[in-house]
Design goal:
Radius of gyration: 55 Å
CATH class of the largest domain: Alpha Beta
Number of domains: 3
Helix content: 55-70%
Number of strands: 7
Largest sheet: 5 strands, antiparallel
Order of helices and strands: HHHHEHHHHHHHEEHHHHHEEHHEEH
Structural class: alpha+beta
Shape: rod-shaped
Strand content: 5-15%
CATH architecture of the largest domain: 2-Layer Sandwich
């Protein structure tokens, strides 16, 4: 005691000597310990810790049978749990992104607004990146996470019944939990991983994801080529109707007026009449010459007269048909239109023929443009290319039974070791310790509240009344 006081006096003297701002950096001077004392204290602490560690190891070695039994029981229980958990199979499909992002991908991103719950508030950023001609893998993942695609899978595979859910929102959530969508930032390859208790259903769902992605992208395609193709398709329908109407009108006019080719038919009619008239003039000249030589009863005169009458009759018939526009159906002249009506027929014929040719030319041009627009639309549509098609898995992906058994074994060893060490520490604690007394009181109170059972003479269990029940019975009586 005197030594401590002297040390304090020395320290205080040093403080007075150094003043109120004196330095106390030297720990040995403040505590009055020399370096040798500190080394001795450190060696003593390390020796105590080493002895305590060896004692714990010896205690665990003594209780090794209990620890081993606990570990075996834990391993058996974890094995049972591992085999009770339903198995899952995983099927994977890998997709290649489109080679060139189309200009309509940003509008497609806006059209898939239902993905906002899964993608967060960064959809506008994704659309901006797409406008910058970046990879469209994020867009594809957004489409795959949309309600449209999820509802398609739920309806096709009856997932509400498979997942035993009542609300469609819960089914979507379970489907999202069992579906993993990843995109490689460097290569842009998209991986679709689907887990299910049935390997066939897992492969079918992965394949349906790819098919639904193709359908949605095709339906929501808003590229310029797509709009051009739709416009040309509508115009083709209209022009085709106009062409059919013009052809029917032209055919009806030609049938009513026997007008197949007005210029050719008019030329043929005029040439036919001129030929007959020339032949008639030649026969008349010949007849006049024969009458000057022979009498009227001469055979040559009568023959020339008969040929002249025949030509005149034929010419009168043609001129009569040309003048009235009507002739016998069996007459050859009926194949030619009326010469008198040729100008009127020719004008109408030319108008109808020109309209038909115009509609035909327009139809041909639009058909060519329509085919080109279809090709361009196919180029601009971000079609999905399957790198690895989903296959039926033959190996389970969950649960990891070896890991579960190993974890149960380690947990059993750790729990039994902790129990042994804790019980030993409890037994070594003095019974007069306040914490031990309080813990004992709490445990006793819990035990008195818990019902106990014992076997009667017939081998069945009966409840033994606890002290709390007896106290309540006494109070009630």
């Amino acid at each position: 005691m005197e030594r401590v006081r002297s040390q304090t006096h020395t320290v205080g003297g040093a403080s007075d000597k150094n003043g109120p701002n004196g330095s106390f950096d030297n720990r040995e001077e403040r505590l009055g310990l020399t370096p040798e004392d500190e080394v001795a204290i450190g060696e003593r602490d390390s020796s105590v810790a080493r002895d305590r560690f060896i004692a714990r190891q010896r205690l665990l070695w003594e209780k090794r049978r209990f620890i081993l039994r606990t570990a075996v029981v834990a391993a058996l229980l974890s094995t049972l749990v591992a085999f009770v958990i339903p198995t899952r199979y995983e099927s994977t499909a890998r997709l290649m992104p489109p080679e060139q992002p189309s200009a309509g991908l940003s509008m497609l991103a806006a059209a898939t607004g239902s993905v906002g719950a899964q993608l967060g508030s960064n959809l506008g950023t994704v659309a901006g990146n797409l406008l910058g001609m970046k990879s469209s893998s994020d867009l594809f993942i957004g489409v795959l996470q949309s309600r449209t695609v999820q509802d398609d899978l739920i309806e096709k595979f009856g997932l509400q019944k498979v997942y035993s859910t009542r609300r469609i929102e819960d089914t979507r959530k379970k489907l999202s939990d069992r579906t993993t969508l990843n995109a490689d930032r460097k290569s842009g390859i998209i991986a679709i991983e689907v887990e299910d208790h049935s390997p066939e259903r897992a492969a079918g769902m992965a394949g349906e994801y790819v098919a639904a992605l193709n359908r949605v992208i095709t339906q929501l395609n808003t590229s310029s080529a797509h709009r051009e193709r739709e416009f040309l398709e509508g115009r083709l329908v209209e022009v085709k109707q106009d062409l059919e109407s013009a052809e029917k009108g032209f055919s009806k006019f030609a049938s009513e007026n026997t007008a197949l080719d007005i210029p050719t038919q008019g030329k043929a009619a005029i040439e036919g009449v001129a030929t007959l008239q020339g032949q008639l003039i030649a026969v008349e000249t010949e007849l006049q010459g024969l009458r000057q030589i022979y009498a009227d009863g001469n055979v040559r005169v009568r023959s020339a007269q008969a040929r002249m009458d025949e030509l005149r009759q034929e010419l009168d018939k043609n001129l009569s048909a040309a003048g009235t526009g009507r002739s016998d159906a069996n007459d050859q002249a009926s194949l030619l239109p009326s010469i008198r009506n040729l100008p009127i027929i020719g004008v109408n014929y030319a108008d109808l023929y020109r309209n038909t040719k115009i509609e035909e030319a327009v139809f041909q041009v639009l058909t060519q443009q329509y085919e080109l627009a279809k090709v361009q639309e196919a180029k601009e549509t971000p079609s999905v290319k399957v790198l690895d098609a989903p296959d039926v898995p033959d190996q389970k992906s969950f649960p990891p039974r070896a890991i579960i058994v190993l974890f149960g074994l380690i947990l059993g060893i750790a729990a039994s070791s902790y129990w042994v060490l804790g019980k030993h520490s409890w037994d070594q604690t003095d019974t007069n310790d306040a914490q031990k007394a309080f813990a004992t009181e709490v445990l006793c109170a819990i035990r008195t509240r818990m019902p106990r059972f014992t076997r009667n003479g017939h081998g069945s269990l009966r409840r033994v009344p606890v002290q709390s029940d007896l106290n309540r019975h006494e109070e009630s009586s």
